[in-house]
Amino acid sequence: MSTAVALRIGTRASALALWQARHVAQLIDAQPGAPRAELRHIRTAGDVQSEVPLWQAGGSAFFTREIDRALLDGAVDAGVHSLKDMPTQLPAGVALAAVLPRADARDALVSRGGARLAALPPGARIGTSSLRRRAFLARLRPDAQLLELRGNVPTRIERLQRGDYDAVVLAAAGLARLGLERHVSEYLDPQDLPPAVSQGAIAVCARSGDATTLRWLAALDDAPTRLAVSAERALLAHLQGGCQVPLGGLATFTDGVLALQASVCALDGSQRLSACAAVAAATAAEAVALGRRVAEELLAHGAATLIAGQRAVLAVEEP
To answer: Residue 4: pLDDT above 70?
Structure first.
């Protein structure tokens, strides 16, 4: 670690980001002899552009870039992220030091009156900021009006409750971490709505040369989750995906078998391509190879053409 007395953790200041950073701080503080963990709030591009749809913003790392910069500049010793927000290619000098045990990876529907997705009225207004969710929802409920929705988790629920939407779709893990599970109307089956790559996983980054900090963070790493998200992130990287691609994927590690399923969907829900594969007794390298194998199967089914077509549609979409 640096010469600082405390281990300084960089985090966004949203309620969910703070919950995640405090959780990491508690895990560090629980280790005998560990330095005191302190939170440092950092405003990211995603926070500044809070009303701009992510797919219109261009680029990547909307919620992580400024924290990584503070890490490399020595202003903080570690950065805590939702792993799904991190680019597949980390900045030079930044290491993914720990991936915490994954929470529920599913998406959840929160609706007015508690109606499930199939029971929402015809033409229901469903809010989401995710192209992935919009695409798969269009396939599940082609009659629905899919509307943009940005803001932190409590803000999104408030907008639903005041009548801006009939339902919103949020990550189940975020709702659980904030104690908001009571609002969930339905947990959506990953077979119907595949989650975002790494959804539900918390990542902790450090400088790649900071051996002391890396040692404290290594104790937080969960091997099964690391294998699963490594496969998912390799899939995403091989497909050159991001916020602008309606891709969902979920890897599970059960009884020594790592299995990965993934789907790409047209924005209007008209076409869906899926692939899956598994490997026994997976190593880190085998997890990455599994992700690439599933990506190659999707590409063989025509995923490259589908993705290119969706990007062309987005390029002419009105802001």
So the answer is: no
